[in-house]
Specification:
single chain, alpha+beta, six-stranded mixed β-sheet, 28 strands, globular
Length: 576
């Protein structure tokens, strides 16, 4: 499902650039202009190509052992769920043939920036990052995620981690482009100022000491950015393997008696939570909203995945820092607490302490108390666990038959079915995406709908939600093959019309999802909408999606063609 949230402007993250983040040499790839060692690119690369990084050989040894594993031919007792935890060892094989193994681990990338140059006239830069992975076949970078915006801070610690797949047998280039935000949305990058980028290889990251790389930020020409007050602009990337723990911890915090931080006011307090990293530093994982001019702030209740907080270790160190928010300036450090998840669950209040960064010790100053009103671990189950528990998935597909797709007789139409391929753009999506989702459908029958067509070409009977079979009471077809046949038959009998309304389809599917999920009968709907991107009932569609967020329903929208899909980004609402 899509969640529509309101974005908030807030300053956060560390104002202090750690001393070890201004080294004399930085990580670079072999192809970088700034590679000190000028080592050639080697495709058979068991080790990192930069001599500044030490190697954890057991990581690669274990991977090789898995990749060399060959199941016994014809053995029907092979059970994929017995593979080592934390990895996906997929076996692609036909009957009585040898298998090909692919090793894939899930990683979370945590990103920090230091000494970012000032691009705004009256305030520090507002950085955010776009993370991309190189497609070696097409020789292009594909976007895999983006961080939140950190307002008014040159030393940003991003709380949003980026998840990627680590493929051991491939050389994976990752590029991080850094921008200075000029507005809240991050979809249209032309409206933001480009700062620079860094590039690294995933294999080098996972074998680095502490799984951390420190890199000098470069401009578009590959030159290091100029130093800011004698300090090199840097990007720090840390990796953490994702385990199978899906549990969440829910907290409600407030504070009492925080120190005075503003000359003409009290304190505009917000807090930030950090986890201990493999290199013995801290990585931000959550930041709260700020409460203005209040010594006793009460923050909103929030949830964090326990694997992000402490990787399932109740005694792993956790750092909570309290900051004083400043408009158009970086925040001021107020106080902190070093604790563990076990203590946060058991304690009702913990005293804040103020660290003296010059003397490297805590000051003898009363900074008040952190009050823990609510702490609760919520057991969460994985997708596979639900399937094992009897959950049945029901797939539904809705196809766009509006006139904006073009006349099906025209070769430029997205519905064109003529020579040389006799397969429209829509049919390609139906087959490619449908084949992925089809195996999860419990009974193999797929709900098939269309919208935006005139069902009576000799008159006018426009429908924004109709059965693809064009028969009353026949909503389902037999699998993807049945969906393809129904689509071709429908295309020959209806007239592409309009306008493009999503809301009727969304409301129809939402109605089918009400009261279908109980302990005895567990059902979940997946709606796949295939469209050319044009939408004429934006607000009604947003309202329908919001109303459906509590239902057992997920919505997947796939765009066809090269039209403007900005409205689809709004429905997705990642930036909101």
């Amino acid at each position: 499902f899509f969640n529509l949230l309101n974005s908030k402007r807030m300053g956060c993250t560390s104002s202090h650039a750690p001393e070890d983040h201004n080294p004399q040499q930085f990580y670079t790839t072999a192809t970088s202009k700034n590679n000190v060692f000028k080592q050639p690119l080697n495709s058979n690369r068991p080790l990192p190509r930069n001599g500044t990084i030490s190697v954890q050989s057991d990581k690669y040894d274990g991977a090789r052992n898995m990749m060399n594993y060959q199941p016994v031919q014809g053995n029907n007792d092979y059970q994929p769920h017995l593979q080592p935890q934390g990895s996906m060892h997929s076996v692609l094989s036909s009957h009585m043939e040898s298998s090909v193994a692919t090793l894939c681990e899930k990683l979370e990338l945590n990103i920090s920036l230091r000494n970012i140059p000032k691009l705004d006239l009256l305030s520090p830069s507002d950085p955010f990052c776009i993370v991309s992975i190189k497609d070696e076949v097409k020789n292009i970078y594909l976007n895999v995620g983006k961080t939140e915006i950190v307002w008014d801070n040159p030393n940003a610690d991003f709380s949003k981690d980026i998840r990627i797949n680590y493929l051991f047998e491939e050389i994976q280039y990752v590029k991080i482009d850094i921008y200075d935000a000029d507005e809240h949305q991050t979809t249209d990058l032309s409206k933001h100022d480009y700062i620079g980028c860094v590039e690294f290889i995933v294999g080098d990251l996972v074998t680095a000491n502490g799984q951390k790389l420190v890199m000098a930020i470069e401009d578009k020409q590959g030159r290091k950015l100029k130093k800011v007050k004698g300090l090199q602009p840097l990007a720090i990337v840390r990796a953490q393997e994702i385990d199978d723990n899906y549990d969440e911890i829910e907290f409600k915090f407030s504070s009492r008696g925080l120190p005075k931080m503003d000359t003409f006011g009290k304190i505009d307090a917000f807090f930030q939570i950090y986890r201990k990293t493999n290199d013995n530093n801290w990585a931000s994982i959550y930041k709260s909203e700020h409460i203005t001019n209040n010594y006793n702030p009460s923050w909103k209740q929030f949830k964090i995945e326990t694997r992000r907080l402490c990787n399932g270790d109740m005694n792993r160190p956790i750092l909570i820092r309290c900051w004083d928010w400043n408009r158009d300036a970086k925040p001021d450090y107020a106080c902190e607490i070093k604790t563990t998840l076990a203590q946060l669950i058991d304690a009702r209040e913990i005293k804040w302490r103020q660290w003296n960064f010059k003397k490297k010790r805590y000051n003898n100053k009363n900074c008040g108390d952190l009050l823990i009103h609510h702490s609760n671990i919520i057991k969460k189950h994985s997708f596979v666990s639900f399937l094992k528990g009897g959950l049945q998935l029901e797939l539904m597909v809705a196809i766009d038959f509006t006139g904006s797709n073009g006349d099906p007789r025209d070769k430029k139409s997205l519905h064109y079915m003529g020579a040389p391929y006799y397969e429209s753009q829509y049919m390609k999506v139906i087959k490619s995406v449908g084949r992925v989702l089809e195996p999860y459908d419990a009974d193999g029958d797929i709900g098939a709908y269309g919208f935006g067509a005139n069902l009576n070409p000799y008159g006018k009977k426009v429908s924004h939600c109709f059965n693809l079979t064009l028969q009353d009471g026949e909503e389902e077809v037999a699998g993807i093959d049945g969906l393809v046949e129904a689509y071709k038959n429908c295309l020959n009998k209806v007239q592409l019309y309009g306008p493009t309304y999503f809301s009727e389809i969304l409301n129809n599917v939402a109605a089918k999802s009400i009261d279908i999920c109980s302990q005895k009968k567990q059902s979940y709907h997946i709606l796949l909408i295939i469209t050319d991107g044009v939408i004429n009932d934006m607000q009604r569609s947003i309202d329908a999606i919001v109303d459906a967020t509590r239902l057992p329903l997920s919505i997947i929208i796939v765009g066809v063609g090269d039209a403007n899909f900005e409205n689809m980004e709004i429905l997705d609402a990642d930036d909101n």
